[in-house]
Amino acid sequence: xxxxxxxxxxxxxxxxxxxxxxxxxxxxxxxxxxxxxxxxxxxxxxxxxxxxxxxxxxxxxxxxxxxxxxxxxxxxxxxxxxxxxxxxxxxxxxxxxxxxxxxxxxxxxxxxxxxxxxxxxxxxxxxxxxxxxxxxxxxxxxxxxxxxxxxxxxxxxxxxxxxxxxxxxxxxxxxx
Amino acid sequence: xxxxxxxxxxxxxxxxxxxxxxxxxxxxxxxxxxxxxxxxxxxxxxxxxxxxxxxxxxxxxxxxxxxxxxxxxxxxxxxxxxxxxxxxxxxxxxxxxxxxxxxxxxxxxxxxxxxxxxxxxxxxxxxxxxxxxxxxxxxxxxxxxxxxxxxxxxxxxxxxxxxxxxxxxxxxxxxxxxxxxxxxxxxxxxxxxxxxxxxxxxxxxxxxxxxxxxxxxxxxxxxxxxxxxxxxxxxxxxxxxxxxxxxxxxxxxxxxxxxxxxxxxxxxxxxxxxxxxxxxxxxxxxxxxxxxxxxxxxxxxxxxxxxxxxxxxxxxxxxxxxxxxxxxxxxxxxxxxxxxxxxxxxxxxxxxxxxxxxxxxxxxxxxxxxxxxxxxxxxxxxxxxxxxxxxxxxxxxxxxxxxxxxxxxxxxxxxxxxxxxxxxxxxxxxxxxxxxxxxxxxxxxxxxxxxxxxxxxxxxxxxxxxxxxxxxxxxxxxxxxxxxxxxxxxxxxxxxxxxxxxxxxxxxxxxxxxxxxxxxxxxxxxxxxxxxxxxxxxxxxxxxxxxxxxxxxxxxxxxxxxxxxxxxxxxxxxxxxxxxxxxxxxxxxxxxxxxxxxxxxxxxxxxxxxxxxxxxxxxxxxxxxxxxxxxxxxxxxxxxxxxxxxxxxxxxxxxxxxxxxxxxxxxxxxxxxxxxxxxxxxxxxxxxxxxxxxxxxxxxxxxxxxxxxxxxxxxxxxxxxxxxxxxxxxxxxxxxxxxxxxxxxxxxxxxxxxxxxxxx
Amino acid sequence: xxxxxxxxxxxxxxxxxxxxxxxxxxxxxxxxxxxxxxxxxxxxxxxxxxxxxxxxxxxxxxxxxxxxxxxxxxxxxxxxxxxxxxxxxxxxxxxxxxxxxxxxxxxxxxxxxxxxxxxxxxxxxxxxxxxxxxxxxxxxxxxxxxxxxxxxxxxxxxxxxxxxxxxxxxxxxxxxxxxxxxxxxxxxxxxxxxxxxxxxxxxxxxxxxxxxxxxxxxxxxxxxxxxxxxxxxxxxxxxxxxxxxxxxxxxxxxxxxxxxxxxxxxxxxxxxxxxxxxxxxxxxxxxxxxxxxxxxxxxxxxxxxxxxxxxxxxxxxxxxxxxxxxxxxxxxxxxxxxxxxxxxxxxxxxxxxxxxxxxxxxxxxxxxxxxxxxxxxxxxxxxxxxxxxxxxxxxxxxxxxxxxxxxxxxxxxxxxxxxxxxxxxxxxx
Lengths: 176, 760, 429
Ligand SMILES: Cc1cc2nc3c(=O)[nH]c(=O)nc-3n(C[C@H](O)[C@H](O)[C@H](O)COP(=O)(O)O)c2cc1C
Ligand code: SF4
Ligand code: FES
Hints:
Chain B is α/β, with parallel strands linked by helices. Chain B contains 25 helices and 28 strands.
């Protein structure tokens, strides 16, 4: 069959958000281009790009969503449906440091509960909450593939394993 | 799907079925009941509800019959303890988090989950835990949403994508917390409401009808839509003389559109019972004076006098007769008869923006039905914008491409939304579509066409190749902007390409529900436009008999034309620009109040049925004309019955020969009228005139790259949609209200932000 | 934490303890990329597939499907591009072997993928790593660039006309994306819902093209298979499942960790009680989940003195299965009701929500568990849970539903006393 002569790009459906799309530095744009270059289909880069936007803007805010929609040639609702499926993508603001204590079996039976409680008491927030100053968020998450070094938590992207309350104090107190 | 038969057995009984048939369809066809939610024919398979489980020999586990295609020797069991347990289990699961307050649910009484529970539900509820809760909300002025009731069959997201090509509504969240919705919870789309239609539960609800009444209180009348020329079949739900809602849900009606309707067909009906309807006949006793209510007898006498005296003074041609393409065939036929036989004037026409005379005079191939379009393999769309003007046609085109692998070539000067589905898009300069028509008729014109349209000759070759090779039906569609001459050429394209291995079909895209009928009844035969008629006011025409108002654009710059008339009589639903100067105004009945027929762009003549009695003193248009004829001393002799008018149409109009109401009563098998197909036709003069007009086009110029917004035509306020508040919200950009939450019994509130946005 | 081989020469773990084991030099100095060389001079794609068939290598991701057979399903004549995708989504509770294989020896995976790509004539390959393993993605990216610089990745690899790209891709927190078809949906930028099978990925996978999805450990086994030859590799293990298997051990043992054992290692009791340093604090063994959370839980009495053979057949015979090889060892202090509740919460959280039984069933089960935990258990609850599991098992769209049902079914059957405690009445009633 003959090929279309005019390249047909999908149209996206911009909703009337009272924001304009986010803008990023040349370096970030370059990083985004590198991700896009990996795939024959733009949409495939949606997760990597979400992490970039999240890193730059703290979470997927409307401006970021609009940026992604334009950049990937999608509708904002397409961004939303994907973003809300994955537990590591935030559509709400989140603390500067996100403490994610693994609560699944191996960690549980090696004392994950105590770690969560310790963090809770130390920060004065329950799992799922963020401190007033927006510095810390605390969550209990499912298995992080660190069962052999339980209990553990992931602080943003860093693993901290074989935890004890003392170790937790050291880690949290050392944070700027 | 091939047609050779294979043998399968269902519950021990042997059957012969077409190879590759879908098991769930086969079972149902053979009378074995299989429950399902997510399965919906002609939509992408989902296999998520797990209701349609069956046992197939030599296969592990139970299988979902919706995903199985029949193979030879397959042995299927649809009923067994194991299967029933599984199906009862799925129903129990679906009900677990589903509120059981059916009495306050708007879908109560027509809910598929209720029906399924009746058949497959348990006697006692084992789920005693707390149900997951989500607040009710509005997604748009038209669409209300109660997420709690969702069973995630995803029919809505699939029709939105596959039928409408809009992808406006999606599933968000994960696991038990998945909800249907949109980003920021506001639905920015063409508001077709098909998601509401296909929703099996009370999750997506008609925001305009919500909590107004109960489905079982509605009298359901199957009728035909009175907006665009696609002629969707619909079910008018009325209660106590009021039209409450319109649906296409196929438990009531199963026409060419299945469960499809567009925003107008579904939501614009409130105009019918609107308080501004003209209630009684009105007379303006002196020019510039007020319209005064009067009796029918008085009004009819006055009209007869008025027309009579003008005819006597200035001759018959001084009386002009105009009919709206929204009227029924019956009304237009009687109007035509009145103009030709009784008045005997040459000055009669329709208010249609688009004359089909030259198209039908040169018709070289049959009209394409919407089914033909769905199964066509090559579709050529020249001009037009079906997704805004003939939404059902657009839906069929999308499915032809997506499900049927059809090749869709779009020739347009604007980047219409359908381009997203197109396999080929030839983007021409504004107004140069006809250049391509010219080229298609004769390749000698290629270079001229390419130059004028601002494209490469190669693009035209590709287009021609599409039509020349490849199997399956070829459908030519064209929009209203085509000139008469161009229409004549398009009407012959079948014979131009002349292949006997495939079928050529034509699909005109006129704007009104009965444009085709208006042509068939002869109202277009004079070949004069409404504009020309208006311009001849004063010089020739002194009196006008108008059934159903001019279009605003026709009166533009001609405002005073009507005021120059000696006598103007208008049949209308509402006061408008035309009635402003009328000497007599007669209250006409809307499509919901009358019997009759419309002829759609498939050439299907379909029934319009009376759902409610005419409001106030309104009368059906043909009756008014007939009564007027009587007053002028001629008895048309219809004994006040539409069927007798149609019988006469069956006798007098060749294309309708032999038709009677009983023959066209079944909306599932619509009847196509027999437009004469000419093997020979001389289009030389048309060719010349098209060539001339193409030659006059500039050699360069900017193309139009602006994006076509969803609804830029659909949401335009017309005389009828003007009466529906929701359309004003849409027309002003569908602004998001401050809060979309609603408590069950409140309709959407037009809050401050909205008011100012709508400019109220 | 321990990383070592027991009862066999370390293959997968050969380099993990070397200094700079991540670097190309160390990898090459220790036999790295020899297999690729061997393949590129002289072996045809079919030769490679045959070796893998002979090796009796079975997928290490959980399904245990014979890898050679899977590869041979890919239609050679298809005009579409072919893809190899490495499944590094490792989210099965109790499983963390892939993590250490990638962290310590990234080039082994790269070599494995290149050989697979050659065998399937694929030019583009992806490593789908779970989003939480961000640091592994960085490690892989560095390694890939190293390899590219050495002409091992990219165009004309080692001067031959074989070209292949390896890209890393990140997940974003969804266990279901470990299921191969869901993984492909996710890789296409969609919600991570599983897809209908057939068509199987081998025929129509990524971008509707032929695709092979393999677990990290499966791919890292390939270089050794090529080097020592299929038979030799198979002989390391049993007839039906060849070679060695890397197990993750967690829970109440003195030396949790990653252990490489020959397939068919003869005694599970010895493995736990000696090789893994015995029970933590000398407590009594109560239960073991041997294959990641998605398999039947085993009672100590089914292990002690039963010399359970550690391979697919052996574990099935013992009433469980290999799964992803994640040992979760539990001592007498563990309440099996609690542990089962914990896992059920995991499955509820990870259910993708596509199909009815899994979505609603896991939600319902968690609610029942919570009610019982809050002291409002009812005698009939055990029966209810078993029935709900039965209604999920075999009816769900993908195996996650079954995976959610099995732990509960086995736990209630094998540890009735722990449930009875909470239901205050005999649960078999
Ligand atoms: C719910 C579910 C989760 C899975 N998670 C993983 C996983 O995390 N890693 C993995 O390699 N395979 C996982 N699998 C198995 C994959 O579906 C697939 O069988 C495997 O990746 C194939 O590779 P293999 O043949 O090398 O094992 C999972 C399967 C299911 C049903
Ligand atoms: S989920 Fe499937 S299984 Fe069920 S009816 Fe829908 S399509 Fe069939
Ligand atoms: S269970 Fe905690 S990391 Fe695996």
